[in-house]
Amino acid sequence: MKGPLFYSKILLFGEYGIIKDSKGLSIPYNFYNGALKKDENPSESAIKSNQSLKRFVDYLENIDEKLVTFDFDILKEDVNKGMYFDSSIPQGYGVGSSGALVAAIYDKYAQDKITVLENLTREKLLKLKAIFSEMESFFHGKSSGLDPLNSYLSIPILINSKDNIEATGIPAQQNGKGAVFLLDSGIIGETAPMVSIFMENMKKEGFRKMLKTQFIKHTDACVEDFLTGNIKSLFKNTKQLSKVVLNHFKPMIPQQFHELWKKGIDTNEYYLKLCGSGGGGYILGFTEDIEKAKQSLADYKLEVVYNF
């Protein structure tokens, strides 16, 4: 048995901001994927995944039935037969490993599920997001539900605000020098501690003001620029966003990347930003000249995800 593939995602813009109603833009990233699977001779990682699935099933049984119901008889039978999530998506890297798993379980076992082939009205998207938020909270303590939504639908999603999301198209990739890339920090990040630092900071008035007047302002501008293909303005706003993150989100940036982050802003060779909640995993980079950025970041593993 091997189920359909569910892909990783990249939240290009909106990390932390979407908690406070900034815009956001999330795109599928087909380089990594995962599927539900059963094997005759499971590996050690398959056994570990299966044990985690058992705990997840216990958690799902307590979700409000008005929100979503599952075929627990078949789900439990499959899990007891050793089903696991076979995934190439790195965990703790901010590219949606738990989101893909949530999408796979919903797709196979949810009753009265909203399918990808339906006319996806805003109501349906919000309902899916609410279901996925509840399901994914098992992994992170608090989830927006966006990662599984992206993985489930496999299309770019534009977040206008908490209650206003839509499927969107993004400009076709060009063969230019500009690029969005992933930089491997080599460290596994954990979402829950990062989110709690953020929530703690939100108690301070100065931080809340900065979030509204700087962080959200530049995030919203970046989303607009990206969708309209206004590249010049996009890099200007990404630079500002990179500065704000370096000044106000330092705990989310691994210590050894503080200098590298600043170097990008000072030289304009690249601009770094958080990919997901930070603390490790991938760091997202934007550059107007990918060859220059590669030279400048020669000591690091770089993956291009989009070309301008």
Automatic annotation (TrEMBL):
User: Which part of the chain is the GHMP kinase N-terminal domain?
Assistant: 83-147
InterPro entries noted in UniProt: GHMP_kinase_C_sf, GHMP_kinase_N_dom, HddA/FKP, Ribosomal_Su5_D2-typ_SF, Ribsml_uS5_D2-typ_fold_subgr
In terms of domain of life, where is this protein from?
Bacteria
Statement: the UniProt record of this protein carries the keyword Nucleotide-binding? yes
Q: Which UniProt keywords apply?
A: ATP-binding, Kinase, Nucleotide-binding, Transferase
Any one Pfam family here would be GHMP_kinases_N
The terms under GO molecular function for this entry are: ATP binding; kinase activity
What is the designated name of this protein? Mevalonate kinase
